[in-house]
Amino acid sequence: MINNKKIPTEAEMLNLLKTGKVVFPPLSLRCLENQSKGKGGRTIDALIEASWGKNKARFVVECKALSTPKVFQASMSMLETTVLPENYRPMLFLPFLSEEKLQELEMKGISGIDLCGNGVVIAPEVFAIFRSGRQTRFSSSAPIKNIYRKNSSMVGRVFLSLSYYGSVQEICAEINRRNMLVNRSNIPPMSLPTVSKSLKTLEDDLIVQRDGVIRLIQSDKLLEKLTANYVPPKITERVRLKIIGGNDTISNLIGRISRESGVPVMATGTSSVTQYAVMQQGNLVSVYCPSIEPILERLPGSRTNRFPDLELIETADETVYFDARQDENFWWASPVQAYLELMGGDKRDQETADQVKSFLLGELKGNSE
User: Fold this and answer.
1) How far apart are CA 305 and CA 339, in angstroms?
2) Which of 177, 211, 228 is the last residue of a domain?
3) Judgement on whether residues 325 and 254 belong to the same structural domain of the protein
4) Contact between 331 and 315 (Cβ < 8 Å)
5) Would you give the DSSP letter of residue 96?
6) What is the CATH number of the domain that holds 72?
7) H or E element: which one contains 332?
């Protein structure tokens, strides 16, 4: 249709419709009227006629310049509740419509077209056309930060610890409270503007909503987003050791050395699984820490790759330490971190991830009651 990369405004989209530059073969689209008042005083963006040979049908068009889930759902609701002129049917006009959204429109009996050549046009006993698979041609004029990856993901993750908060300030404070590196290292806390921007995307994606409080409404969808966008931490050093002598367990030893050195140490997600699920594990304990050397200096062991029982992984990635859980003198990764690491593993790991998910959602329900 058009080759711009910038999303047009609603006025520009309606002008394209009016001037015949929006095409959806085999249909011919003709704009009958722009910006009129419908019954009840609601503004109608456009009235169009779609024809295929001698077959014709007329539609009331709702046009939006954003294709976010929040805008999509609100627009569908508006079309469902609008009293249409006689012999007119509802149609949604967005920059891009995915196949999933087209199927949802079809189920509700609402037509929809986009600027990329996708659409579903339904006129019972006249014609029905469904076309999908064309990729979006548009990117936002402002860069969109992926809030489900790296540090921004902590805004979503905090809702998997408690599902509702009274304010953005409360969310920001809770994120920084649960960030081990903020509390035990010199990492600066997350800022309020970062939290606000991430919340806006969570709202647009219909994962959280504001109704007096800021509330998680789709925990499964949030976990899916976090899983799909998860990137393993950047590792700057990795050392495997065989611990020599002593009666301490690895966790007690590491916990004590962490306190003595002042360096935070925490089990990886995969080494924390037994805290949240039933899974048989070997003797190797893997831990994250932001600085390996102060820990190595105090360890009674030697480096080896043959039957090691401790693995030190140096990373400054804040997300892996987020919401760590303390058990006596040792810290374990959060159930979210354990889940994400398992989901990146083999079939057995992913099956165990289901157990962690059940634990996580059960804990969330208990914390939110």
Assistant:
1) 27
2) 228
3) yes
4) no
5) -
6) 3.40.1350.10
7) strand 330-332
Residue 89 has pLDDT above 90, yes or no: yes
Q: What 3-state class would DSSP assign to 220?
A: helix
Tokens of 98: 């995915």
Rounded Cα gap, residues 344 and 355, in angstroms: 15
pLDDT in tens, 122-160: 999 999 999 998 888 876 544 446 899 999 999 999 999
Is the domain of 281 the same as that of 170? no
Domain that holds residue 245: 237-368
In a domain, 245, yes or no: yes
| Residues 103 and 221 occupy one common structural domain | no
CATH of the domain at 188: 1.10.10.10
Q: Give the distance from CA 114 to its chain's centroid.
A: 24
The span from the CA of 119 to the CA of 130, in Å, is 6
Per-residue buried b or exposed e for 233-254, using 16+ beta carbons within 10 Å of the residue's own CB: beeeeebbbebeeeeeebbebb
Q: Which two tokens stand for residue 217?
A: 């409404």
Which whole number is the average pLDDT over 176-202?
92
Total domain count for the chain?
3
**Burial of residue 100 (number of CB atoms within 10 Å: 0-12, 13-18, 19+):** exposed
Contact present, 309 and 285 (Cβ < 8 Å): yes
Instruction: Report the amino acid identity of residue 318.
Output: E
